[in-house]
């Protein structure tokens, strides 16, 4: 028999809210007037001058169109999987958002300090959901 997760209503609600946030953020990346990846990376580069992450930030800025497409796709895909998925794909999608959040904080924290509490909240929600889903697994 396979393990399956029977989520509580609160866990399912939290998962759907988190997924919807990722979905909205991913779609938002397609509209520079909502959020400009190039603009954020320009701010980050100025703030990261003289640090060990100056060179990676320069590369990200130089390749901002590809970076934006990758991040938009990753966030949108994760959002869809988290909202509508079932089984291990949900856990995988949630877990894969954690390193992404870590990268955002690493690159942006000097230019945009608000990224720290926001992304910590997202990471905390993700970890809470993963933990609750793991606790609720039952053998069918």
Summarize the structure.
The protein has 6 helices and 2 strands; from the N terminus they run E-H-H-H-H-H-H-E. It is mainly alpha-helical.
Structure description:
The structure is a single chain. The N and C termini lie close together (6 Å). The protein has one domain (7-132). It has six helices and two strands. 74% of the residues lie in helices and 4% in strands. It is elongated and about 50 Å long. It is mainly α and 140 residues long. The mean pLDDT is 92.
Features:
two-stranded antiparallel ribbon; mainly alpha
Helix content: over 70%
Beta strand %: under 5%
Shape: elongated
The low-pLDDT segments are none
Number of helices: 6
Write out the strand line-up for the largest beta sheet, numbering strands in chain order: 1-2
Distance between the termini: 6 Å
Describe the largest sheet: 2 strands, antiparallel
Listing every helix as H and every strand as E from the N terminus to the C terminus, the arrangement reads EHHHHHHE
Q: What class do helices, strands and sheet pairing give?
A: mainly alpha
The total beta strand count reads 2
Instruction: Kindly report the average pLDDT value.
Output: 92
Number of domains: 1
Gyration radius from CA atoms, angstroms: 17 Å
